[in-house]
Amino acid sequence: MIINDEPARTIGILKKYNLMPRKKFGQNFLIDSHVIGKIIDAAEIREDDCVLEIGPGIGTMTRHLCDRAARVIAVEIDRDLVKILKEDILRDKDNLSIINEDILKVDVDELVKTENGGRRIKVVANLPYYITTPIIMGLFEKHVPMESLTLMVQKEVASRMCASPGTKDYGALTVAVSYYSECYLAANVPCNCFMPRPDVMSAVVRLKVLEDPPVRVNDPDSMFAIVKAAFGQRRKTLQNALINAQGISCTKEEVANALESMGLSPLARGEVLSLAQFAKISDILGK
Fold this sequence. Notes:
It contains twelve helices and nine strands. It is α/β, with parallel strands linked by helices. The strands form two sheets. The chain has a seven-stranded mixed beta sheet, with helices on both faces. α9 (220-232) packs across α12 (275-286). The longest helix has 13 residues, at 220-232. It is elongated and about 65 Å long. It starts with 5 loop residues before the first helix and ends with a helix. The mean pLDDT is 91.
């Protein structure tokens, strides 16, 4: 039987250092040992792995990562927490590097070269919900060498990542995630697993990074411009969305002809197109 002593530990640390979770950093500390175990298991951490943890907080998950991995790099924006982690909570972890920085400003590619010789890392994070998408897309678009990302995110975001075409959750994030990775929903996490409790449910998602995209497209940037336009105004047909979008030069007739060649209705909306179909229409219009 697993005893969940994390709530008492978290309260003890907060009292000891007179800390309050900071809303501006989106701090909601995970206090459930069972969920921590699910995250570690989903990430498939091996003894030769190098792990990048984004937002270690008070080191709840960091301790377990250090016990399982060869090396852990923890990036934390809160300088007060960094001081406590280094001087007390995690001072005995000799396979840990703690960096006081905003992850959105870190050159992660350079960090991986320095800390792991450019070899692929595994990312584990309990992400602040308001910057989840920028962090994920930043790592993907900069082609950081990664095996996987195992993330605690808002359940609504997890649903969007793993959605299927034609569903209400399917959108630009879904298409981007499916271009770079395979998405797996590992666990749903209720609000009472955090301190303080967030207002929304959470979920653990594992994104297995693909070495090569599942589709071939002549110009990925053009494809993603089309994807962004398609979901920018979901109620519009794809025709109207594209001809009114900045940075896309095509006529209504050209879009209609492209859709017809793909066997799609001229009234089709972006939400019905798969990743492969977005790649195809991008190639057709690009000609």
